[in-house]
Amino acid sequence: MEILTSRLLFLLLMCLNLSSHANTGDLFHVTSTGSPANINITLCLNGHGPLSCQDYNITGLNLNIRTAAPNHTYPSVGIRLNTPGYSLSNGCNTTTDGYCLFSVSDTTASAITVSGVRLGGTLSHLTQSGLVLLNNGGDDLSVAKNSTTFTFSTEIPSGSAYNITVGTQPTGQTCVVSNGSGTATADVTNIAVDCLTLYGSAGTNGAGSRSLYTIDPSTGVTNFVLLLPNLVGQQIGSDGINLYYFGGSQPAIAFQLIDLVTRITTPIPMTSNYGESRGVAFYNSNFILSSSSHDFYTVALDGTVTQINSGIGDRKGFACVNHKFYAVSTNDNKLYEIDPNDGSTISSTTITLNTGETVTQGIALTANPNTGVMYAMLNTQITSGRKFVSIDTQGNATFISDLTVPKAIAGMAFHPANPTC
To answer: How far is CA 26 from each of CA 23, 73, 157, 231, 324, rounded to the nearest angstrom?
Structure first.
């Protein structure tokens, strides 16, 4: 009886000692690293006994846990997650009452991994540096150029809403996000980011040749890419896969495929001549093209040229927004809506520039097929070089920059992107 009483007294003192540890927070030493989080957990020395449990707030998903009791190993420590949306992925054995059991001592830490939901997806055509993606306006993710996939480092609780946006555009490119928002109940892998580059063709690079440049849509800054064949006509166009150059007057070499990797152009012999190209866009599996003689053509990818109409007027640069085609003219300050089937004019409106300068000519026009924003090269009564602007379908132009090097960009196209019209 005396021995039994002594043992009961010892157990009571142990419980009181554990209860005291629960209040002072020294039953366990817990460190957390890895993906940032804000999670509350319960740890119990004897699995899930109420007198040996304490709550801890952790700030990372990778846990290292040891006991504060010296020279002792506890074979069935229990851990429970109190913050919803997370799970224990390894390091313990799950029980039916919501705890997960593992062995721990004061000298050797046990590693426990907590899991949330990961957000990621694919990247297309990212060729420049500087892209930053955001989730719900934060959790900045910098993405290296030429990356094809991405994953946010922070795991979020299952059931959380997410909204992936572009925080910073890469230098000289415009990226858009698809499938970027929803509620994450499992790892999300179908977010898609597509990046486009705006190209411009110019009459000279200072050496008497025609040249291809990139144009930063936000600043108008240009960078030389390659020399183009020195032909009349300076138009370029994209079919969503390849970029093409449209010269003129010489059917055997006027239509050329541009290889942006090797920086070589390859002629595609045409069936007939269209003269000097003025406006180009991809429509219904063919390019539509206006010429300096005011004729309207289709040009197939195999070089087949078909004249559709004549006498359509001077129409420079074709752009498609919401299934409507627009063009400008070197003869006036109008923005024209045209019929892409025959090049005829549907309507026109006067272009007004927000700087107050009077527009005298439209030189080039294109549209970002992902955003629907149009960009134009305009001349004004102030002869300080062409004005690079964004422009809406009502003719309201917003100044971006004065084009200085080169001054003679006359054709523009976004590439690569599947045309929307």
So the answer is: 8, 16, 28, 81, 70
